[in-house]
Specification:
The complex is a heterodimer. By secondary structure, chain A is mainly beta. A five-stranded antiparallel beta sheet of chain A has the order 1-29-28-27-26, with no helix packed on it. A five-stranded mixed beta sheet of chain A has the order 3-2-4-5-6, covered by helices on one side. Chain A is about 10% helix and about 45% strand. Chain A starts with 5 loop residues before the first strand and ends with a strand. In chain A, helix 1 packs across helix 2. In chain B, helix 3 links the parallel strand 6 and strand 7. Chain B is an alpha+beta fold. Chain B folds into two domains: about 30 residues, no CATH class; about 100 residues, 2-Layer Sandwich (60s Ribosomal Protein L30, Chain: A). The radius of gyration of chain B is 18 Å and the shape is globular. Classes of the chains: A mainly beta, B alpha+beta. At the A-B interface, strand 12, strand 13, strand 16, strand 17 and strand 18 of A face strand 2, helix 1, strand 3, helix 3 and strand 7 of B.
């Protein structure tokens, strides 16, 4: 597909509020023994890459040294993988039998990350985004490292605002196939899809709740755009906001009890938080004049958004720390951030590329390029 | 949990919908069958679009002469008009909903000029408004007699 994968340097853009996120986050070394079996070399290399991309672990080759070790075998893409602790005791020994080697290695890598850090990995997660080629906008889904990019829509209608449900199985997106902005729900396993929200006006920006049972979105059938929560079938909705301004881009808190969204009630868009059952929204003071594309981190502590100091100003991915109320620029000249399930990494659009940035270190890498334009990435949880 | 496979394999759960009703979620409305702004039969570019200020959703009264020309045309003929909104702002989602607000503002202005609301529909293309694009609302006219033939919401590709 003419796409490539490349490393970029450290962003060195951790500036602003003087926050010290990531302090004390030691990197754990993990020995990766040579895998036996016909696809062993490929599997071991992919596993090392996955462990390194976690940010929390660093893979070292071979059996030398003490501490955590993984060993495995890979035949015809199927993997038996074990994790051993510093005393040589087996922590787990699992069999991974998905049809594709990459799926099996990603699942093994995430199990290693979880066993060592007690947190979630990102290797098996998926990224959806909107890409333009040949004048057509289509929805694409890729692995978290930018590999295996699949075009999952094909008709010629305008599309946007993809959102992946838990596990990356269901995809919600906005399609103008009917001539108007409707929300479509697509099952990525078999490609089946149906329009679930087609109220008068524009229905867009659907975001899955973390349990996958609800969508939050902006709808305008009662006049101007307001934030709604909808059942997954789209048959039932509830309005959460009521204002003369434009409300858009809702995103769920991980507990599902609140949502963050944008409103231009004060002129330029600002961030607000509202309870899932409605009520008076509270403005989030971010220090930025123009705030769009908010998304709540999986740990509930941070909200990432696109910040601009003026309407026409350059974008930056900004992370707002809720306990301290402080914001910092994570990556300049980037926009539309989306959190990985590990609560540490984010994907964002930078120019015509998709990048992944480590919020602890500020280092980033380009994972997708080769499109005329990329918009609105969404990371599965 | 009772789950059913909908068209194309998408699963909906009846119990989830029942729970949604219990939580006070109401039945969602669906758009009536309407013609598409991009259909071949729709005449676009016949009148100059209404230009909005950057980030502004309110109907600009400075554009009233353009609007009156459209209203006069509609009063003479029996065509239906589709108002297509766009916005050039720093977020695709903001652009979609701001474009919709602009189309709605022009719709209200046309109604104030005496055009029945049932002859007007609105759509937003956000950043991707066909034609000149940008901060505008464009007009598309559906010839009489063809209004029921052009596109239906939910149609499959």
């Amino acid at each position: 597909m003419g796409l490539f994968f490349q490393w970029a340097g450290t962003a060195a853009l951790l500036s602003g509020a003087g926050l010290a996120w990531g302090e004390g986050q030691g990197v754990v070394s993990v020995g990766v023994e040579a895998f036996i079996g016909g696809t062993g070399d490929s599997a071991a290399q992919l596993l090392r890459d996955d462990l390194d991309r976690s940010g929390a672990l660093r893979a070292r080759e071979g059996e030398a040294g003490s501490g955590w070790r993984v060993r495995g075998s890979s035949s015809a893409g199927r993997i038996d993988g074990a994790l051993l602790d510093g005393q040589g005791a087996v922590v787990f020994n699992n069999h991974y039998a998905e049809p594709d080697l990459r799926d099996n290695v990603h699942a093994f890598a995430d199990d290693v990350v979880t066993a060592i850090t007690q947190g979630r990995g990102l290797a098996a997660s998926k990224l959806a985004f909107v890409g333009r080629r040949g004048g057509k906008w289509q929805i694409y889904v890729a692995d978290s490292d930018g590999q295996r990019i699949q075009q999952v829509t094909s008709d010629g209608a305008l599309k946007g605002a993809p959102s992946l449900g838990p596990g990356g199985i269901l995809l919600a997106y906005t399609s103008w196939q009917s001539g108007y902005g409707d929300v479509v729900l697509k099952d990525l396993r078999d490609g089946g899809e149906r329009v679930v929200l087609s109220a008068p006006g524009t229905n867009s920006g659907a975001a899955f709740s973390l349990d996958g049972t609800r969508l939050a979105l902006a709808m305008s059938y009662q006049g101007n755009a307001e934030i709604y929560v909808a059942s997954l079938s789209g048959s039932r909705v509830r309005r959460l906001t009521e204002a003369r301004s434009v409300e858009f881009s809702p995103a769920w808190a991980p507990e599902g009890d609140r949502l963050v969204f944008c409103s231009d009630a004060g002129g330029a868009p600002q961030l607000y938080v509202v309870a899932r059952r409605g009520g008076a929204p509270e403005r989030l003071a971010t220090g930025y004049r123009y705030n769009t594309s908010p998304e709540w981190s999986a740990d509930g502590v941070h909200i990432a958004f696109t910040g601009r100091q003026a309407a026409g100003g350059g974008p930056a991915v900004v992370v707002h720390d809720l306990p301290s109320g402080q914001s910092r620029v994570l990556l300049a000249r980037a926009e539309e951030p989306t959190w990985a399930p590990d609560g540490r990494h984010l994907a964002a659009v930078r120019g015509d590329s998709l990048v992944v940035v480590d919020s602890f270190t500020g280092s980033y890498q380009t994972i997708v390029s080769g499109f005329a334009e990329i918009r609105e990435p969404s990371w599965s949880r | 949990m009772l789950c059913v496979v909908l068209s194309g394999g998408v699963v909906a759960c009846a119990s989830a919908d029942k729970k949604a009703a219990g939580e006070g979620l109401r039945e969602a409305p669906r758009r009536a069958n309407l013609p598409s702004y991009l259909a071949a039969q729709v005449k676009r570019g016949k009148f100059e679009g209404i230009v909005f200020g950057e980030g502004v959703g309110e109907y600009p009264k400075s554009e009233r002469s353009k609007l009156r020309a459209v209203a006069t045309y509609l009063k003479v003929g029996g065509e239906r008009v589709i108002l297509a909104g766009g916005a050039k702002v720093g977020s695709a989602e903001y652009a979609r909903q701001l474009g919709q607000q602009r189309a709605g503002a022009v719709q209200q202005a046309l109604v104030a000029e005496g055009i029945p609301p049932n002859r007007i529909s609105t759509v937003s293309f956000g950043l991707d408004l066909p034609g000149k694009g940008g901060d505008r609302v464009e007009f598309g006219f559906v010839p009489t007699g063809e209004q029921a033939l052009l596109g239906r919401p939910g149609d499959k590709p």
